[in-house]
Amino acid sequence: MGKRRNVLLIVVDQWRADFVPALGAGFIRTPNLDRLCREGVTFRHHVTTTVPCGPARASLLTGLYLMNHRAVQNTIPLDQRHFNLAKALRLIGYDPALIGYTTTTPDPRTTGPRDPRFLVLGDIMEGFRSVGAFEPNMDGYFGWIAQNGFTLPPKREDIWLPEGVDAVPGATDRPSRIPKEFSDSSFFTERALTYLKGKGDKSWFLHLGYYRPHPPFVAPAPYHAMYRPEDMPRPVRAPSWEQEAAQHPLLDFYLRNIRRGSFFHGADGDAASLDEAAILQMRATYAGLITEIDDCLGRVFDYLDETKQWEDTLVVFTSDHGEQLGDHYLLGKIGYHDESFRIPLVVKDPNAPARAGSIESAFTESVDVMPTILDWLGGEIPRAADGASLLPLVHGSKPADWRDALHYEYDFRDVHYSRPESTIGLGMDESSLCVIQDEHYKYVHFAALPPLFFDLRDDPHQFRNLAEEPAYAGLVKNYAQKALSWRLRHAERTLTHHRATPQGLETRSVRAPEESE
């Protein structure tokens, strides 16, 4: 293979873009991510093409939009026919290692209904070699801390309760009951260093996943007290949750139905009633969890430095999706708001030192990560991939046909823990939306609900829906047509470049101009 070429793909969970110092988050300390931004290219306008975890990771690792891979929600199977990054890496001689999870539900046609993977949100995507699994039940993690001498409580998830018998579950300035040495972030880091030290001088690909800053929002000491609530950015929201709810039936559903217990272990109450003090404390804890990950990444980066592998390694840092963090009275990753979809992306290519420290403003999407890694390793980018390699942008050359807007989707059909479909009164296949968004406007199209349209110059936080305003009728039509054209261009195309001819099978290898973005 010639000179060693390694890839470190870091995928954190629920880290939103405006908590990245290089993008303006001066209130948070991440020296190792800062280093990566100084040595790589940071992407300012990057989104996941769908939420939540399972669909987002399916798009990240297959390079396909939600409308093509159709693993539309957590618990929904991923069709086994779809190619993915791990399978592609095996074709070029890599044994793709995975630490963490992909939240992938298997294709039921390849197994039986008694398969225990159908009892959980998801498992590991086909093609990866797990070297530090967290899913499906976190057994590997809990076993690790027990093996290291920590006594687990009868209900093992209680390690994420605030310290102290008098602690009240919820937004808190108290540390978790698990010390940092046994946190899940430490577990993933130990697994990463074990894997890397075992590889010696062989080339490697490592998907290094971290569970944080995903809830429950409680951090181990000293990270629980690293940030003051008063130093956190204030939530963006209307004067009341009822005013927010009036914008759209889907938003009304979530504001009435999101519970605190999904974000603070053992807590009661609804998310929409969190006051500002609680939100700011939650954000301070969230920032602490981020700094804990950064410290862990520092250990991995130091090892790559010590072994002279840093200069041979493509490093990609990203998240699966964002987090509402109280903005618009919401928690989690849902709907159509920017906070759920805008995520970090940093690419450090050792072959592109001239652009080190750059901030790239082109519109980029999570489906671009798979093509980028394959391009860097000399692999073939699948015809079906909806994304494009970012290497031209990393090297300072924006392709003439690069996309001029961001695109993302969300499917809100019923799953066992959330039932918007039946509450609103829709059919399963009507419960979806797609978004097209550029620097000026954002259009949200629903399969069976009213659309939304926002003028981002006058209303960057998207409080005022202009879809029914006569003055915007022409723009709404234009953006609806753009959304339709986007879907038509990206309809599934695995075999559409082949055709039969009188001379036999013909394969077109170059996209025609009308097929480009």
Automatic annotation (TrEMBL):
Keywords, ordered alphabetically: Hydrolase, Metal-binding
Spans annotated as Disordered: 497-517
Highest taxon in the source lineage: Bacteria
Residue runs in coiled coils: none
InterPro entries assigned to the protein according to its UniProt record, in alphabetical order: Alkaline_phosphatase_core_sf, HdlasePehA, Sulfatase_N
Biased composition (Basic and acidic residues): 508-517
Domain Sulfatase N-terminal: 5-378
This protein's name: Alkaline phosphatase family protein
Species in which this protein is naturally found: Plastoroseomonas hellenica
